[in-house]
Amino acid sequence: MGRYRGLFPYALAAGLIILLAVFAPYLAPMDPYAQDLSLALRPPDSVNLLGTDRYGRDVLSRVIVGSQITICSSLLLLVATTVFGSVVGALCGLRGGRLDTIVMRLSDVFLAFPEMVFAIAAASVIGGGIAGAAMALILISWPKYARLARGLVLTIRSMPYLEAARMSGSSDREILFDHVLGNIAGPILVTAALNLGTIIMELAGLSFLGLGAMPPAAEWGAMMSNGRSMIQTAPWVILAPGMAIFVSVAVFNMLGDKLRDVFDPK
Fold this sequence. Notes:
CATH superfamily: MetI-like
Order of helices and strands: HHHHHHHHHHH
CATH architecture: Orthogonal Bundle
CATH class: Mainly Alpha
Radius of gyration: 22 Å
Number of helices: 11
Distance between the termini: 16 Å
Helix content: over 70%
Number of domains: 1
Structural class: mainly alpha
Strand content: under 5%
Largest sheet: none
Number of strands: 0
């Protein structure tokens, strides 16, 4: 139990961030999309705790509601990428042959490009919007999980319990889901937890560049993009979503480090 004790504070903080994202519309003190130009660029006060933006919208409400787009989209993206890449990689490691060769060479092509550069190019081709940004990030993220799962499967492929499963007549699908994925889940989950912060930054980065969430969506990267010209006159407009990204990424990265300590104490 001792090694789990250090995990609790970070798991609690991550859980609170996720709960904030899920229930964001109910927690926002004001309508994040209500415009009032008479209140434009109002500094933080007792009414607008984080001030207002150029359209008079409450920044705190937009940061809270923006967590739903940024955090929830990143979590869904992470789950989709992890499941797809892990299943494909595990199947390649289990079966080998031509399938393994083709998929691994394809993953080499994707891994040859810098992640963000490839994501920008893919998002530009797919089209704007949060869905296009998500598809672009899936394209650049699945190979790392496929490579990891394949390597883990190669280390256990000749284990006696897998040989016994084959001799009992189990199909590749049954072996994959009943015996393989459960035994390689630990390192994959740790990698996913460590990668969540990266996905949050990449998704926000695409929105910052105009390739993700479109205005007037309250998304952290898009909010920073809209406020970058006011960094000197109204710094709260860009600092609030920036701090939200910083805190979220830091919490999830520290959670990933603690999970790695739990699953690999050596």
